[in-house]
Amino acid sequence: MADIIVSKFGGSSVANAGQIQKVRRIVEEDSRRRIVVVSAPGRSKSSEQKITDHLFNIATDGMHFRDQRLSIPVADSKLAVIERFTEILQQLDISGEGIIEALKQDLDCKLRGDRRVAFLASRGEHYNARIIAEYFQASGMEAEVGLPEDFGLLVSEQFLNASLLQEAYGNMQQLGGEKITVVPGFYGVTKSGEVAVFSRGGSDLTGGEIARGVHAASYENWTDVSGVFEADPRLVPEARAIPRLTFKEIRLLSSKGFNVFHLNAMLPCKERKIPIHIRNTNAPEEGGTVILFERVPEEGVVGVARLDSVAYIYLEKDMLGEEIGFTADLLGILREFGIQTYHFPTDKDDIAVLVNQDDLTGAINDLRRRIEQQLKPDFMDVVYNLSILTAVGLGLQGNSYPIVDALSALGKAHIPIEMIDQSPSQICFHIGVQQTVADDALKILYRALIG
Amino acid sequence: MADIIVSKFGGSSVANAGQIQKVRRIVEEDSRRRIVVVSAPGRSKSSEQKITDHLFNIATDGMHFRDQRLSIPVADSKLAVIERFTEILQQLDISGEGIIEALKQDLDCKLRGDRRVAFLASRGEHYNARIIAEYFQASGMEAEVGLPEDFGLLVSEQFLNASLLQEAYGNMQQLGGEKITVVPGFYGVTKSGEVAVFSRGGSDLTGGEIARGVHAASYENWTDVSGVFEADPRLVPEARAIPRLTFKEIRLLSSKGFNVFHLNAMLPCKERKIPIHIRNTNAPEEGGTVILFERVPEEGVVGVARLDSVAYIYLEKDMLGEEIGFTADLLGILREFGIQTYHFPTDKDDIAVLVNQDDLTGAINDLRRRIEQQLKPDFMDVVYNLSILTAVGLGLQGNSYPIVDALSALGKAHIPIEMIDQSPSQICFHIGVQQTVADDALKILYRALIG
């Protein structure tokens, strides 16, 4: 385990000069922070578009914003990107020699198709890393930029959904010397040297893969929130950041509505048991959340997640339970329709499958017809607008008091419960309620289980 | 709705002369009991074999008992059948003219294959019905035998797993006149007049189908227990018969371990909303259990069932939850192996499928190999010897107090809970525990929810 921390800073952490100065102070504070992975600049005002969206707009000839019912010409997007980087350079008070010229040239690139989209989309990270490295140097740090094309962050040729090649790990050994290396996230290069990007949110993945490649002591993920909260702080203002979580817990929470960084990005760290530390660039004094391979739980429940827009498809059929494979057939049909399923309680004569309600849009009539023709249920119903509240915690193992507390509290508040499940893995349980009462239910569960 | 009750008497209710005299008194007591369906004589001593088993033994040339590691020659089985019916005739003090001769001739029948097995297996019901009809007449009742071959209880040509043909319903209109008709259960005749039997337990089906065919006011199912109990009375001595249950409730209870009569046999009555009344021939003064199409619940839980020998197959795989269709694939494999599944909780990175443990015998190694090759889980485990306790009651709808009470009571008794589920249909919930503590858990749940 090298004594290196890989620190990844998200879009809001590097959105403007003021934020980049915070990044500098954070990096300076711990000499182990020798690999810094950066995103493209995020929004610096909520009114403006993200740099990366402008870049997609340029790449797609104006389609990108049109899809969002905005009309921004390509020329305006180019201008916005150039002005934004120019402004950052000026505010950081560095020359950035040649940077704006190179950027302009890149924006006029002649690539076509996916290669074009990948190349242009990656420019936000690319130029931001170059600017930040130069700023670090100008302010007296031993720093350099480490571009994927230079050190060989090799990826597959799926230009818009690339995956890392094994050789890349070896090439990463060049990183993490005495100097601080600033690496742009989100993209790599193919063996023939062309730019390809990870799926969006992929700067997190760059950070995770590099942490794995250099056997980092930890992977810091700096954002604009102070970690993973016990519950959505917009609904539960007293919710705090969870200090320590296992990979298993965070995955359960995020699958049920917690909005944390890209799950895929955790896998490289999980495999090598490298802890991930989620921290707030705007409040580095706060402890944040550490995601670990294992921990000893001191409490029952660490967090309550909420997943909205769940529907259930309910089928009744006499002797259904005797038909081996009925459920498999049903799930096969749902797969064919591309519908994500969450949970499948089944009984003798009925089965209820919870699904992502949005997946039913436009498909529900065909789906009903298909199920009726193939499975011939006696009765079929689709119920919409459920919310699933999920309590997660290693401390739930072999401990049924929390679910009793949860159900008692909801009962006392007269909140009807649509569904209850605690699975054999037993580090979480799920309670389904009508979406209209989900705000209240979340608050009640938080207070009963954590607060 | 005709003013007829179809009364079916099971094997123990017609096992000997004393029992048949009880049947006579029951039939006499209510003039609506004009169709009486009878089983073959059951064991009259626990040491002896059932008539129908002897008949299977004759049909299979001694194989039937050999499969049960008994050695009873065909000649002995023939003798046992003849002696038993002779004894019943003598004790009922009727001549039964020609009956024993006809029986002897039937036992020597020259049919082969499934036709032979079906014909011989049906002889217990056939001759019992003839004897009981004659006894009814001899004791002054207006009665006659109604044989499937005479009134046309037509069935398909699957000789050992026959199903009723639509025409049979029309033919049943001949039954239920002024006279009491005694009908042998379990068999019908094909269009070409050959005997074919329902799957075993099929006398219940004969009764249910006839109740449907004659639009009976109710279908009485007379047994040696006083109805459906709230919980297994061997474990919970204070458990009482449940007075009223819906079809839905009984199906849920019986799917989770309640041993009531053949579920298939309920379908004809359920379709026509004919109530089924389960009663005790040995205690006709007791109310028994009425199974109805609907009812207004006065309580939360009506019964707690217990299903043993449940195993769960647990799989972990990173990003499993993102793979649409992973569960469908898993269930497809289980179907291919003929393994019955009960319940499928699933989470982001894991899935646990509850299965009938007996189905895994001999198949588990191949199944593991197959799952590992096809689904490539990161981790796979099979946990054996779970019991699923299921609380059922219409009154559970929108009412979560019972599950809170159940979990609190188990918690207080320090019984670890492996699994909890209350499905959206919500008239039952399931609690999984280790089989070793299931006796205690059942008692605790009974006392917390019902007793």
From TrEMBL, chains A, B:
Keyword field: Amino-acid biosynthesis, ATP-binding, Kinase, Nucleotide-binding, Transferase
Q: Does the record bear Cytoplasm in its keywords?
A: no
Please name the GO terms that the record assigns under molecular function: aspartate kinase activity; ATP binding
* Stretches assigned to the Aspartate/glutamate/uridylate kinase domain: 4-280
Cite the InterPro entries for this sequence.
Answer: AceGlu_kinase-like_sf, ACT-like_dom_sf, ACT_Aspartokinase, Asp/Glu/Uridylate_kinase, Asp_kinase, AsparK_Bifunc_asparK/hSer_DH, Aspartate_kinase_CS
- CC annotations in GO: cytosol
Q: What is its EC number?
A: 2.7.2.4
SUPFAM superfamilies per UniProt: ACT-like (SSF55021), Carbamate kinase-like (SSF53633)
Statement: the UniProt record of this protein carries the keyword Cytoplasm: no
Q: Which residues form the Aspartokinase ACT domain?
A: 390-448
| Any one Gene Ontology BP term | threonine biosynthetic process
Which pathway features in its UniProt record?
Amino-acid biosynthesis; L-lysine biosynthesis via DAP pathway; (S)-tetrahydrodipicolinate from L-aspartate: step 1/4; Amino-acid biosynthesis; L-threonine biosynthesis; L-threonine from L-aspartate: step 1/5; Amino-acid biosynthesis; L-methionine biosynthesis via de novo pathway; L-homoserine from L-aspartate: step 1/3
Identify the domain of life: Bacteria
What reactions does this protein catalyze? L-aspartate + ATP = 4-phospho-L-aspartate + ADP
Similarity field? Belongs to the aspartokinase family.
State the name under which the record lists this protein.
Aspartokinase
**What species is this protein from?**
Microbulbifer yueqingensis
